[in-house]
Specification:
The complex is a heterodimer of chains A (631) and B (84). Chain A folds into 3 domains: 192 residues, Aldehyde Ferredoxin Oxidoreductase,  A, domain 1; 163 residues, Aldehyde Ferredoxin Oxidoreductase Protein, subunit A, domain 2; 211 residues, Aldehyde Ferredoxin Oxidoreductase Protein, subunit A, domain 3 (Orthogonal Bundle), CATH 1.10.599.10. Helices cover 40% and strands 13% of the residues of chain A. In chain A, a hairpin with a 2-residue loop joins strand 10 and strand 11. In chain A, helix 12 packs parallel to helix 14 and helix 19 crosses helix 22. Chain B has 84 residues and is α+β, with helices and mostly antiparallel strands. Chain B has one domain: Ubiquitin-like (UB roll), CATH 3.10.20. Chain B is 32% helix and 29% strand. The relative contact order of chain B is 0.28. Classes of the chains: A alpha+beta (631), B alpha+beta (84). Chains A and B meet through helix 8, helix 9, helix 10 and helix 20 of A and strand 3 and strand 4 of B. The structure holds iron/sulfur cluster (SF4).
Chain lengths: 631, 84
Amino acid sequence: MILPVYAQINLTTGKTEDFPISEAYFKRYIGGKALAARLLLDLTPAGLSPFAPEMAVIVNTGPLNGTGAPSTSRFNVSSKNVLTGGIASSNCGGSFGMMLRRAGYEGLIITGKAEAPVRIDVSDGEISILDASELWGMDTEKVQEELPRHMGKLVIGPAGERMVSFAGLASGERMAGRCGVGAIFGSKNIKALTAYGTKKIPVANQQKFDKYIKKWVRFLRKHTMTGDSLPHYGSAGLVNKANASHALPTLNFQQGHDPLADTVSGETLAETRLTRNSGCVSCPIRCERRVMLDGKEVKGPEYETLGFFGPNIGAHDIDTVLRLNYVCDILGLDTISAASTIAFAMELGEKGMADFGLTFGDVSNLEETLRKIAGREGIYSDLANGSKWLSEKYGGKEFAMHSKGLEMASYEPRRSVGMGLGYATSNRGGCHLNGGYMALLESVGVLSIRPQDTRAKAQWTVFMQNALEAISTAGCCLFSGQTFVPQILFNLGPNHFVTRFLGQAAVLTGPVVRLILAVRPVMRFNTLLLLPHAEALRLATGLPFYTGSFLDLGERTFNIERLYNLREGLTGEDDSLPARLTKTPQNPEKKNTVVRLDKLLPVYYRTRGWDKSGRPRERTLKRLKMENEHG
Amino acid sequence: MAEVNIRYRGTLAGLINKEEERITAETVREVLAHIKTAYGAAAGKTAKSMLIVVDGESIHLRGGFATRLKEGETLQFLPICGGG
Ligand code: SF4
């Protein structure tokens, strides 16, 4: 068995040593966010501030990272969440993860605090802590230009240096944006991580693996989602879809539909601004869209950024979105939290509760606002703490659009109630991906499982959360999982009676999903049609991964992060949403356009095998071979 | 009968070599019939399998193919997308 190699770096003492990962941990948690959460529980005491020197930040990979399997460039950063106080896990594409593995390490555990700015360099098995004083103050683009070209890089910008609560990390033009992981780097005086190596990444059964990869790539290319839609429009294509279903947050989630949304849609972007498509290493999907900005080609915005710097702040100018997306990236700000906090501040202003000089529809001062947030200048330092903190100071808790403290993504859950449950239960806070991304099945995809109906949504949410967590932990991009929606439905289209019938009938499938969850031990098969990652993981690790045990891995990932949250004092009470979503119908004439968390949560807890307070039951942990693994 | 704007996006625009036009139709079904007659069965089939929105709203929230069209409304054919 090829066990992962981790290093522990203490920036206070300057000491670096290899950190062995036991066989038991590897078999159970594999790597990525699952293993990182386990290590955080082991290595850090409860109640630490995210900015305490003793706090650990873990940058790690999954077993498929850099193996050449499709869409496996994604690496993970875990620590304590600056915005929620629970788990932080942030995922990023680009070459850094692959380079780290080629340099000889599957993960780095960084603790302590450097006296002055540093760059941690990992080159062919050697770890060095280098002075980075001259890099401090640079934006994420400039600092990466200054670093050696051939290296994988992970850096902070001014926002991370000033410990803005939603500062992210940049790797090339990709961001590990969420949860304030950039602020944690800043608190430790880490300006950059660099990695370079030439080591071959080992795979247990290389011949079979290579053969399987070829088959998988062909499958991805043939599927409408990964072979056509994502390569053409990326996630940006969702603006018009969400809007058509009234699931596009508009004016700080006051509405879900904006008649002018097409001005910032993926189609408009593709028709008028796109220069070419691009993508992460080893990815046949290539969902990234390049655009021109001031004569320079830059990465285009994702769906979330288009929605949040568009309709959610009452704006309809695509060039403004391109600019603000770029500005956030170079400052090292998470676009979702930054834009959502701005929308909240706009509504506070509209209601006369606070004045940050921000008004719905006025984009003239937004670039300056972002720069002031990143610099924590004056009252903008308040905005730099995120919308939860802001609502505690100025009021407006019922319309501060976060869960647990992390701003929600750009799906209006009153028209996608399963997504609402996902936001509420996601371990890192209001995240659609950790939340199970039910919006894809309810409101923005080819299938539309009765968006207002609560039946079967808890069971599907659990299934989807487990599947997405497993994909992430393995080191894959979640977009590669979208092939689980059968191709036949795309051939038929959303208007075909079969597709519509399935959307209606799916609300009766709760017991079926529970059954699938229950019979996982006998699901000893792998198929490209459901979770192709399982077979790749089996061939890469030599461990018996099948569809069932792969879903177990996802469930274990979800539970270990939950245990971290519970240890840090979060409870079932924190599985919540702002009152705007649970009490105020989006459409006053349709009383069911709210998220009935009161109905959804009990079924969700039961399906998860948690008690009424949202704590995993002993028998659940035993089933997952996690007994005796409390925080 | 209402005069409506039709916008063709994604593969459909390439297939019929047209991005928009104005036609007279009473329902979405009539627009689909027009596409089939004017641009052939393949275009008709593609159009039917796309996301159809009237003034930005999915026909699923209105009357499906029977959705009645009003003067000056815009009907769009959009590709199915994904992401996250
Ligand atoms: S689908 Fe997009 S984000 Fe995912 S690995 Fe490929 S290019 Fe990167």
